Amino acid sequence: MSLQLNYKLEGEGHTIVLIHGLFGNLDNLGLLARDLKQDHQVLSIDLRNHGLSFHAELHNYQAQAEDVCQLINHLNLERFTLIGHSMGGKVAMKVTELMQERIDKLVVLDMAPVAYSQNRHQNVFAGITAVESARPASRQAALGILAQHIELEGVRQFLGKSLYNNGEHLAWRFNVSNLLGNYQHIMGWEPIQRVETATLFIKGANSDYLLSEHQAQIQAQFSQAKAHIIANTGHWLHAEKPDEVLRVIRKFIG
Question: So which residues are the catalytic ones?
Answer without folding.
Answer: 86, 235
